[in-house]
Design brief:
Layout: H1 5-11, H2 22-30, E1 34-38, H3 47-55, E2 59-63, H4 67-79, E3 84-87, H5 93-104, E4 113-116, H6 124-131, E5 135-140, H7 160-168, H8 181-187, E6 196-200, H9 205-214, E7 220-224, E8 232-238, H10 242-255, E9 259-263, H11 267-279, E10 284-287, H12 293-304, E11 310-313, E12 326-331, H13 338-345, E13 355-361, H14 366-376, H15 380-390, E14 403-404, H16 408-415, H17 420-432, E15 436-437, E16 455-457, H18 471-493, H19 498-505, H20 509-514, H21 523-529, H22 542-546, H23 553-558, H24 561-574, H25 579-586, H26 590-602, H27 608-611, H28 617-631, H29 638-647, H30 655-667
Parallel strand pairs: 1-6, 1-7, 2-4, 2-5, 3-4, 5-6, 8-13, 9-11, 9-12, 10-11, 12-13
Antiparallel strand pairs: 14-16, 15-16
Helix pairs in contact: 2-3, 14-17, 14-18, 15-16, 15-17, 16-17, 18-28, 24-26, 25-26, 26-30, 28-30
Length: 669
């Protein structure tokens, strides 16, 4: 029996109205549709599965990547009288058995929400219990982790597709263990039973498509809202010296009311900022992935309870943090990607009040992120070297269930790989291809200060040439993360409207069309209003780098016939004619017209908004990343660029996209 969603909103959550988009999303889920939600942090995503989860009879299974995220959600649901549990490595074996027993035999107040990590799907006992229960909804939070393009990709997410199929093909059992087939068939059409709702705050068009494909979803309803954070002022300050940076962080904190987060790129930087702020008498806490579970939980609780006003953290902090009075988010170092940056600043201003997001960065900061890209995406030679180390002493065809219990640091030293971050990245890759396994019963295990535990070989040793790893795909991921860093650098160091760049990056055309020419909410546009004109970075042009003269060149081109033909293409384009129609009228090929459009875009005559109607902005960004990574930003032979794109599985990227990417690069020189 379905309950009225408006009554649930008011009586359970104490809210009078839904935010924009929430009711449409909930209605889609209630109708049994597979639903994908792309909404920035703070947009109210959790409500879109919690309301239908309460309204529908049965259990909602929530698959979430972090224990802290689960804890926050469960605590809030329990405060509202909703029976909710989590099953993960943070609770004991007996408590897990008790929860499974309660799911098997529901009492007067049955469990409504079961939060699990994706690795729980490796547990046969759990899957068998859930298959016999009445599951009404599956919610996948932080769904970008499903995508192969995301650095947090976890192999266990690949089990969701089969898990859902098994639930849909098995009607629930009643308390006596009998299949209630008639009731099952009456209530739910087997073709649309148990809808999935997948939610994420940061996903480009490419990632969105990948999520849908990897979950095997059909007839999907997509909802995209609120990528324009209207109440957050985005500021960038380039400060090269550490002492000046620290002083600026303290100054911002002292001048800004409310609480805030300071993100640093490394544990070392977290400690430096934390100690400096503490010496200034600021109530400050810290949070890093290297801290033990108790310390991390205490650090988070101190921040949520206002015991400390500021927390200094790596990007391990923040998932599920819903603190209303966060007024500022400071990035002490260059963020690694637009996705990560935008998710992190979204923790500010959740109450709708004005807040600020400040990046204090310099070109020297890029070295930290380049280190992460390099070691987070190891090359083939390094992977093979660690593989040989793990299988040391074994002949081809041998396996013998070998288990290695050593820290990643020890493995790095003994294998010659070096740092433990690269070892951890290689271990994840080997696990993804089911060559090894980590943890106990499928759960990742981490004890205090001990990175790496129980690495178990799953396959026989083979020759390097036949190791079951998709090397083309691994190289593609490496290029992907290099291109993300390139995009982040462009966001920071190229003078332009910050908000416009973000909306273009996420292909949010709806908000892009509403954005005024001067947003008035970023440092670039604020300076423009004040009459401060920023110059582009002094980078030599291609001709200057080659030592050629360009005097008179503009005058010569300006009077050439080519400008006339470009202007004719522009005239027809502005008449809203598509490119093939323009080509027919001009008596040329569509490829020629595309080249004209790219040239006009490069000169600033055609805007990125107009270009976005012709192709996916993400395609341009990807092609640009390949040009920057493989050709040092110099594009001379388009066929070579196209060959690399196709090798990386991007046959969808056309020569038109490559031309536009080249035009973008040339705009900056």
């Amino acid at each position: 029996m379905h309950h009225n969603i408006h009554s649930i909103l008011k009586e359970t959550f104490g809210l009078e109205t839904f935010r924009e988009g929430q009711e449409d999303i909930i209605t889609s889920v209630m109708a049994g549709n597979n639903t994908i939600v792309f909404m920035p942090t703070g947009g109210g995503k959790s409500l879109t599965y919690q309301v239908p989860g309460i309204a529908l009879d049965g259990i909602t299974v929530v698959i979430s990547p972090l224990i802290s995220l689960m804890k926050d959600q469960i605590d809030k649901l329990r405060e509202r009288g909703i029976a909710s549990v989590c099953i993960n490595s943070s609770i004991g074996a007996q408590e897990q058995r008790d929860i499974l027993e309660e799911i098997r035999y529901p009492g007067e107040f049955p469990i409504k929400f079961v939060y699990i990590a994706p690795e729980r799907l490796n547990s046969e006992e759990f899957v068998n219990v859930i298959r016999k229960a009445r599951v009404s909804l599956i919610a996948i939070d932080e769904a970008h982790c499903v995508s192969q393009w995301w650095h947090d990709f976890r192999p266990s997410y690949m089990k969701i597709k089969d898990f859902v199929k098994s639930l849909r093909s098995n009607p629930p059992l009643d308390n006596g263990g009998r299949r209630d087939l008639e009731e099952w068939e009456e209530e739910i059409d087997s073709s649309s039973s148990i809808p999935i709702i997948a939610l994420t705050a940061t996903a480009t068009k490419k990632v969105r498509t990948d999520i849908i494909d990897r979950l095997g979803l059909e007839k999907v309803k997509e909802f995209i809202y609120w990528f324009d954070r209207k109440n957050i002022v985005m500021l960038v300050r380039e400060i090269p010296k550490k002492e000046e940076k620290l002083e600026k962080v303290a100054e911002i904190i002292e001048k800004t009311p409310g609480s805030g987060i300071v993100y640093a790129a490394s544990i070392k930087n977290v400690e430096e900022v934390y100690n400096y702020l503490k010496s200034k008498g600021i109530r400050v806490g810290k949070y890093t992935g290297s801290m033990d579970n108790v310390s991390r939980e205490q650090g988070q609780n101190d921040f949520m309870n206002d015991t400390v006003r500021v927390v200094v953290a790596t990007n391990a902090f923040g998932m599920g943090i819903d603190k209303k009075d966060i007024r500022f988010v400071i990035h002490y170092n260059l963020p690694g990607s637009i996705e990560g940056y935008y998710q992190e600043i979204g923790r500010a201003g959740r109450d709708g009040r004005m807040s600020i997001a400040v990046i204090l960065a310099s070109f020297s900061d890029t070295k930290i992120q380049e280190f992460f890209v390099e070691n987070g995406n190891p090359e083939k030679e390094d992977i093979l070297e660690l593989y040989e180390y793990l299988y040391k002493g074994l002949k081809e065809g041998e396996w013998k269930g070998k288990t290695i219990e050593k820290t990643y640091a020890a493995m790095g030293h003994e294998s010659g790989i070096g740092n433990d971050m690269k070892v951890a990245s290689i271990i994840k890759i080997l696990e993804k291809y089911k060559i090894i396994n980590r943890g106990i019963d499928g759960e990742k295990v981490s004890t205090d200060g001990f990175r790496g535990r129980w690495v178990t070989l799953l396959k026989n040793k083979t020759a390097p040439s036949v190791i079951p790893i998709d090397w083309v795909h691994q190289n593609m991921l490496r290029n992907e993360w290099a291109s993300k860093l390139i995009a982040m650098k462009k966001f920071l160091f190229t003078p332009q409207c910050r908000k416009r760049f973000i909306l273009q990056y996420f292909s949010d055309i709806t908000d892009l069309e509403k954005l005024p020419k001067n947003c008035g909410m970023c440092d670039y546009c604020i300076d423009q209003k004040k009459g401060i004109v920023r110059e582009r970075p002094k980078i030599a042009t291609r001709e200057e780098r080659r030592g050629t003269k360009t005097e008179g060149r503009e005058k010569k081109i300006g009077r050439s016939q080519k400008i006339d033909t470009y202007e004719e293409t522009l005239r027809l384009f502005r008449e809203q004619k598509n490119l093939s129609v323009i080509a027919d009228e001009r008596g040329v090929t569509t490829q020629t017209i595309e080249a004209h459009i790219a040239k006009l875009y490069g000169r600033g005559t055609i805007t990125i908004e107009e270009v976005s109607k012709l192709t996916a902005l993400e395609n341009i960004q990807y092609a640009r990343g390949v040009i920057q990574t493989h050709f040092a930003g110099k594009a001379e032979k388009l066929r070579e660029i196209k060959d690399i794109l196709e090798a990386e599985g991007r046959k969808d990227i056309r020569y038109f996209d490559i031309h536009l990417a080249i035009a973008q690069i040339e705009q900056e020189v």
